[in-house]
Amino acid sequence: MATGTGTTRKISGSSARAHTRKPKSNSPSRISGIFKKLLLVFFVGFLAWAYQAIKPPLPKICGSKDGPPVTAPRIQLKDRRYLAYKEFGVPKDNAKHKIVFVHALDTCRHDVSAITSGLSPELADQLGLGSKFYVAGFSLGGQIVWTCLKYIPHRLAGAALIAPPVNYWWKGIPSNLSAEAYKKQLLQDQWALRVAHYTPWLIYWWNTQKLFPCMSIIARSPKVLSQQDVELLPKIHSLKQETACPAEDAVTFVETVRQQGDYESIHRDLAFAFGKWEFDPTELRNPFAEGSGSVHLWQGDEDILVPATLQREIARQLPWINYHEVRGAGHKFLYADGIADSIIQALVS
């Protein structure tokens, strides 16, 4: 349509919409929304993977549907766990001295053979030990002896701790001594000990992942063996083969120890040994102040796993403990000729 001053052009509605419509584009806000969703999916997936990685498998309890067979006498504890045991020596009714021996980490009841044929390890009330009995613990088993001295001193006739690990976080030990001994451990063990103490729920993953070395004792590394330990290995192997149960001939001794799963058999013990304790052994009082028994602490001065410096400090703070340091001995000195007899004679004399 024309006017006197200019020209006016009609434009259809569809043409007008075409000229005024904004072109489609991938706006930053839309991209950000998609990224957030992808990130959420990835995070959820990672959490699911991490949960499966750190969650230990269910234990294969002996006698259960999918577990190994029961090959030893055992008792059931109040928390419904089972405790297998093995008796040595004369029948318990005729035994003059009744001794419960607690074996070390990554070992089993057969290792009690190291102590001598004079031992008769039975388990308190259910095994008719009477009102008092002796207790001896080797390596990590020695930490069980500390708990006996704390919670059931009235049931003990005497106690022997043989190269028991020292928790580097016990407050009674001077921090400079703990730090010095801790730094002498293998680097892989320093990290594994931190995990056991600060994040015990990660202990299964830490010792089964393949990114870096697990704890040396779990890997059975020779790096933590002293010269004497290496020399004793053939004897230790022979003793284990001699005392293995005939029903376990089809399974090696090593497999027997871990047959219920690594977490159930060894990881939980590490979490106990180096976790947070309810008490400090350096604060214990003499349970035999009246002279009715005695406590003995045995330690090798060349032990790589358990620093002798820390045991000396414990013995200094607890003067009622009879401290025996064996020269030239490593962690496995219990198996050396004559040592087991000396430990038992000192305990029951």
TrEMBL record:
Gene3D superfamilies reported for this sequence: alpha/beta hydrolase
UniProt KW Ribosomal protein keyword: no
Polar residues bias (residue ranges): 1-17
TM ranges: 34-54
Keywords, alphabetical: Membrane, Transmembrane, Transmembrane helix
Domain of life: Eukaryota
PANTHER family cross-referenced by the UniProt entry: ALPHA_BETA-HYDROLASES SUPERFAMILY PROTEIN (PTHR45763:SF51), HYDROLASE, ALPHA/BETA FOLD FAMILY PROTEIN, EXPRESSED-RELATED (PTHR45763)
Protein name in the entry: AB hydrolase-1 domain-containing protein
UniProt cross-references to InterPro entries, sorted A to Z: AB_hydrolase_fold
Segments for region (Disordered): 1-29
